[in-house]
Amino acid sequence: MSLRDPNSLFAVVVLPAACAALGFAAFGPLGFVVGLMLPLVVLANLPETDERIAELEARVEELED
Contact 9/17 with Cβ under 8 angstroms? Predict the structure, then answer.
């Protein structure tokens, strides 16, 4: 379960649902909407760093030499 994986059940369902429930308990219907959307927006804007791609690019350059 990774937060950066766009297909992760935790990142797409569990975390937003928990935030929505907490938002609803604290602020009512508006808190529900904000709590539901905020984790999805934050997770969508995380920078993607894929070390595997950098590693493969380095290997390709090494093989080309």
Answer: no
Residues near 25 by beta carbon (within 8 Å), at least 6 away in sequence: 31
Per this entry, what is the length of the chain? 65
Give residues with Cβ within 8 angstroms of 40, minimum separation 6: 12, 16
The predicted model scores a pTM of 0.64
Helix (H, G, I), strand (E, B) or coil at 49: coil
pLDDT of residue 60: 92
Q: How confident is the model at residue 48 (pLDDT cuts 50, 70, 90)?
A: low
Are the beta carbons of 32 and 20 closer than 8 angstroms? yes
